[in-house]
């Protein structure tokens, strides 16, 4: 543990009390993963907004029907964003295979590991204000991993599958979309139910986003490592190098 | 029964249909089935040469709207022809025979046409309490159905009752009304849903099966693709208003007068597979949307439970009284937002308190050290510079 005093910084206004700690950082998120993260953030936002207006359309447009295509455009944007989301998700899955081990964390839930659940509880106690200092993590903390896997990862599969099943109703029984996703209608023979579930899924993503952004900002400030900048540079920086 | 060797054509002639009417029927039918006029001679030939296949028409728990629709088939000719194909054998509501005599026909057809006849079922069997909630001829309908299905070649499930369960199967389904395909599992079941199904769709499906002696192409739910492959929404003449974003916002508003899309008034056309927007009702005169009312999704599974009929989003009762996905979702999102704000507030206060505690602890330690230092001056008399 090397502790440098402020003198080693050579800044003009430095005082002897400005003790600094050597910062260490680890490269966690590789470039394709970061690009995927921000592409997904944007497309989900677009999908939530357009999806909401598909379910509850805007006030009627006056004039001739041939002069406007408001709903048509909203739906087109929704479907395009849906394709971007789905293709990016496929690439993300590919990256989980070829990327570093952090890229796989999103797809794993160590359900049978006792120490994992211990970690979840510990992290929950930090969020319940029962700890004065958090632990350090290179990847996601166990609680974050739990929420990401159960809500985000499963939610992505759910939204993409139900979304493409609905899309297949438009492209028809002979389309590849129907061939791939038509089985959804074996579970829900009345597609109105698929609409309802897809719609509820939107709210799951809205709530996930609220929690995700809050947790990221809070951890960025209060934890012992960087968060937001990590998803930009890929580097996880630690604010101290004390042991846990 | 002598009909075993008769052809369809012979039966029709015996019923008093002219040759001319017969050929007209063949032409109409081939067009209705989407085969084009060129197929008319083939239909005629089939009907002239093939021995008539008997159709048994059973009625379970139902309201007879399918029969009502069927006998109002657009062209009276079609109705006459198809009725002469089927009515001779057995149909509770429209056959001449009654009582034991009628029930005897079932047995006879079952034996003489084993594995050949088509079993058309209107309504469904309620299974609760041994099926006592539907006792045609004094026996549970479910028994009659399974017995007759055992020797049938194929089963047609007429209407939403037989296909999905319909109103008697709506929550809480007190009699455990069960769609036909869940009771008859070893025979092909062709669903012709609708409440009722369109007459031309019914006669079309039946004629196809009788003349070509094969099942029409079915979708994954067992519905004939030629009538059920597309949604009302896909062929709705109001669709341009949907795409433009022009909706009826309330009954009798300007949009309603202009014939705007009924999506916001709860039209279920986007989730309903049926032929209304192409074939139409009452000899093609109109269909619900054309007369200004949204589709209620009558040919879909559990459409009674996917309402309200006049709301776009399905109510999630009993999860949320009068609530939809939006009510539930927005409530949870607001709760999450509130929880986050509260958590952030506590985090700030707690961090400040922790900081103060640490500062106080440091100050106390410092004061303690100072006191100790004053009490015992350093031996070498010099000040310590680093800490
Ligand atoms: C996080 C991702 C997504 C969100 C939040 C979302 C949201 C929504 C919402 C709220 C609706 C309205 C449902 C209703 O009440 O009828 C909707 C409809 C729909 N979505 Fe998505 N969606 C997502 C992903 C997708 C994907 C990946 C596709 C695939 C292309 C897709 C295709 C559709 C289709 C086809 C409809 C029905 C449109 C219509 O009825 O006109 N969605 N979406
Ligand atoms: S009226 Fe109904 S079926 Fe027709 S376009 Fe509007 S939503 Fe679709
Ligand atoms: S428009 Fe809809 S509710 Fe009306 S008859 Fe057709 S399928 Fe049934």
TrEMBL record, chain A:
One GO biological process term: respiratory electron transport chain
Residue intervals of the Cytochrome b561 bacterial/Ni-hydrogenase domain: 28-234
Transmembrane residue ranges: 35-55, 76-96, 146-168, 200-217
Keywords: Cell membrane, Electron transport, Heme, Iron, Membrane, Metal-binding, Transmembrane, Transmembrane helix, Transport
Database matches in Pfam families: Ni_hydr_CYTB (PF01292)
A GO molecular function held by the record: electron transfer activity
Family statement drawn from the similarity comment of this UniProt entry: Belongs to the HupC/HyaC/HydC family.
Protein name from the UniProt record: Probable Ni/Fe-hydrogenase B-type cytochrome subunit
Origin organism lineage: Bacteria, Pseudomonadati, Pseudomonadota, Alphaproteobacteria, Rhodospirillales
Automatic annotation (TrEMBL), chain B:
Residues reported in the UniProt entry to bind [4Fe-4S] cluster 2: 233, 236, 261, 267
Cross-referenced Pfam families: NiFe_hyd_SSU_C (PF14720), Oxidored_q6 (PF01058)
GO terms for cellular component: [Ni-Fe] hydrogenase complex; ferredoxin hydrogenase complex; plasma membrane
A single GO BP: anaerobic respiration
Keywords, sorted A to Z: 3Fe-4S, 4Fe-4S, Cell membrane, Iron, Iron-sulfur, Membrane, Metal-binding, Oxidoreductase, Signal, Transmembrane, Transmembrane helix
Binding site for [4Fe-4S] cluster 1: 63, 66, 161, 195
A GO term for molecular function: metal ion binding
Cell compartments where the protein resides: Cell membrane
Necessary cofactors: [3Fe-4S] cluster; [4Fe-4S] cluster
Residue ranges of every copy of the NADH:ubiquinone oxidoreductase-like 20kDa subunit domain listed in the record: 63-208
Catalytic function, reaction form: H2 + A = AH2
Transmembrane segments: 21-40
Residues covered by region (Disordered): 352-387
Enzyme class: oxidoreductase
Domain Cytochrome-c3 hydrogenase C-terminal stretches: 228-309
Annotated positions binding [3Fe-4S] cluster: 276, 295, 298
InterPro entries xrefs: Cytochrome-c3_hydrogenase_C, NADH_UbQ_OxRdtase-like_20kDa, NiFe-Hase_small_C_sf, NiFe_Hase_small_N_sf, NiFe_hydrogenase_ssu, TAT_signal, TAT_signal_bac_arc
E.C. number(s) listed in UniProt: 1.12.99.6
Cross-referenced PANTHER family: HYDROGENASE-1 SMALL CHAIN, NIFE / NIFESE HYDROGENASE SMALL SUBUNIT FAMILY MEMBER
Subunit architecture: Heterodimer of a large and a small subunit.
Sequence similarity: Belongs to the [NiFe]/[NiFeSe] hydrogenase small subunit family.
Protein name: hydrogenase (acceptor)
Species the sequence originates in: Roseospira goensis
Highest classification ranks of the organism: Bacteria, Pseudomonadati, Pseudomonadota, Alphaproteobacteria, Rhodospirillales
């Amino acid at each position: 543990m090397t502790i440098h005093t402020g003198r080693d910084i050579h800044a003009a206004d430095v005082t002897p009390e400005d003790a600094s700690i050597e910062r260490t950082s680890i490269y966690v998120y590789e470039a394709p993963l970061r690009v995927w993260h921000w592409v997904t953030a944007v497309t989900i936002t677009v999908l939530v907004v357009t999806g909401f207006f598909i379910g509850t359309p805007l006030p009627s447009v006056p004039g001739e029907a041939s002069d406007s295509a408001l709903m048509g455009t909203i739906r087109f944007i929704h479907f395009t964003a849906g394709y971007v989301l789905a293709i990016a998700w496929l690439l993300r899955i590919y990256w989980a295979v070829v990327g570093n081990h952090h890229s796989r964390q999103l797809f794993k839930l160590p359900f049978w590991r006792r120490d994992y659940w211990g970690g979840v509880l510990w992290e929950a106690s930090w969020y319940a204000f029962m700890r004065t200092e958090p632990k350090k993590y290179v990847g996601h903390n166990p609680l974050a991993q739990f929420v990401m896997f159960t809500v985000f990862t499963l939610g992505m599969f759910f939204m993409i599958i139900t979304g493409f099943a609905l899309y297949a109703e438009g492209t028809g029984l002979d389309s590849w979309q129907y061939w791939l996703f038509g089985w959804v209608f074996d579970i829900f023979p009345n597609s109105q139910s698929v609409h309802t579930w897809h719609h509820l899924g939107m709210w799951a993503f809205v709530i996930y986003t609220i929690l995700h952004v809050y947790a990221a900002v809070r951890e960025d400030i209060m934890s012992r490592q960087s968060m937001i900048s990590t998803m930009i540079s890929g580097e996880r920086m630690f604010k101290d190098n004390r042991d846990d | 029964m002598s009909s075993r060797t008769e052809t369809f054509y012979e039966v029709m002639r015996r019923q008093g249909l002219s040759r001319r009417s017969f050929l007209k029927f063949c032409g109409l039918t081939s067009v209705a089935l989407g085969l084009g006029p060129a197929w008319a001679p083939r239909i005629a030939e089939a009907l002239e040469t093939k021995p008539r296949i008997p159709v048994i028409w059973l009625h379970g728990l139902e309201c007879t709207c399918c029969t009502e629709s069927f006998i109002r088939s657009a062209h009276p000719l079609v109705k006459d022809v198809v009725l002469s194909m089927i009515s001779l054998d057995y149909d509770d509501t429209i056959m001449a025979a009654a009582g034991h005599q009628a029930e005897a026909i079932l047995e006879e057809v079952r034996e003489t046409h084993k594995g050949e006849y088509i079993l058309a079922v209107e309504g469904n069997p309620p299974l609760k309490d041994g099926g006592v909630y539907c006792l045609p001829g004094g026996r549970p309908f479910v028994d009659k159905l399974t017995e007759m299905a055992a020797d049938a070649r194929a089963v047609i499930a007429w209407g939403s009752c037989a296909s999905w369960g319909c109103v008697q199967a709506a929550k809480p389904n007190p009699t455990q009304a069960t769609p036909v395909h869940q009771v008859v599992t070893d025979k092909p079941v062709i669903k012709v849903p609708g409440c009722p199904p369109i007459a031309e769709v019914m006669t079309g499906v039946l004629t196809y099966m009788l003349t070509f002696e094969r099942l029409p192409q079915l979708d994954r739910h067992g519905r004939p693709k030629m009538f059920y492959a597309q949604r009302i929404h896909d062929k709705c003449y109001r669709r341009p208003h949907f795409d433009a974003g022009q909706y009826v916002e309330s009954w009798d508003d300007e949009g309603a007068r202009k014939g705007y899309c009924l999506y916001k008034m709860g039209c279920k056309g986007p989730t309903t597979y049926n032929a209304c927007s192409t074939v139409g009702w009452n000899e093609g005169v109109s269909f619900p949307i054309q007369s200004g009312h949204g589709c209620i999704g009558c040919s879909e599974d559990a459409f009674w439970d996917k309402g309200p009929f006049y709301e776009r989003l399905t109510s999630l009762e009993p999860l949320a009284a009068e609530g939809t996905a939006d009510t539930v979702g927005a409530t949870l999102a607001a709760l999450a937002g509130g929880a986050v704000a509260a958590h952030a507030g506590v985090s700030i206060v707690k961090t400040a308190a922790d900081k103060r505690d640490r500062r106080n602890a440091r100050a106390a330690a410092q004061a303690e050290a100072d006191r100790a230092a004053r009490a015992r001056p350093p031996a070498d008399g010099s000040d310590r510079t680093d800490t």
